[in-house]
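Problem 12. The chain below contains 337 residues. Write out its predicted structure in token notation.
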Amino acid sequence: KQSITDKFAIWIRGNFFIPDARALWINPSVKYLSKYLKENHVDAILSDGPPHTNTAIACKLSKKFNIPWLADFQDPWTQVDYYKLLKLTKWADKKHKKMEQQVFKVASKITIASPSWKKDIESIGAKNVDVIYWGYDEDDFINRKVEPSDKFVISHAGLLGFDRLPDVFFKVLHDLKNEIDGFSNNLSICLAGNIDYSVVDCIKDNKLLENTTLYGNVNREKALDLTVNSNVLLLPLNKADNAMGRIPGKLFEYIASRKPILCLGPNNGDVYKIITPLNCGQSFEYNDYNGIKKFIGKQFSEYSMKINNIKNTNLEEYSVKNQTKKIAEYLSEIIKK
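Solution.
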């Protein structure tokens, strides 16, 4: 719950630090980099945002020096899910949108993290837009040891906030403990990262605390070890207006681990469209009790028989190597124009 101080801080941040809390970097960075660009030849500029301070800096430099610019968006700007929570005045909202439109006008090429978000920003004026996924690093999985637990491990590594509360999923686990022999004794829910109190309360309410390990924050290596040694990988998406296009970076590590993925989010969203052809998991609406229950029951049955049916081999499209290759191709294109 937000205190009055928290709400005031959000209002200050949204209305006086535009586009974000790093806004004071813009002018000094433009001044410093302008000196560099006067003395050194640069073929193209690549920026990555958020923070959209990066985007604003690149926009000013591209316009000032007439250098081709690829603007990458890992999240949208004014269409991002938390934009409505910034408590913006009409003046601040207008300034955000004016800066965003300037980016669309100046950028030679725009990339964004999902197909749905591509359509969203095109609907407000973005041109020459393509998708660049987060991707997975092949080196992360080359020599990683797979040492599965004796337990039926369902894991999630990362932030699990109130806007991703999987209440029906926990209800399913509660019911399966009472319905399937051996499920209660073998179930192990492993959660790493910051967990909202509402999620912990839901675990307690469903009598799952005895089956749950809360690791707190862990390093990347520990998170990857947890991923490859799980039986089911939980992927809850934000309950937000733009969830159709929400593709968490961990999805690609999940895919590379070749373990079953249980996604909770909108039907026919971008995650669904990725995992379905790869046959590496299923996606359900948050309230799809029967679908989630059937999926978990099937995975527990395969765990009991020591079966892993995830044998997808067509992963290369989503590797960091291939995503980086696409960026290089886009940069070459805008340099030649």
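Discussion. Strands lie at 45-49, 69-73, 109-112, 129-131, 152-157, 187-192, 212-216, 232-236, 261-264, 281-284. Students who got a different answer should revisit the alignment rule from Section 12.3.
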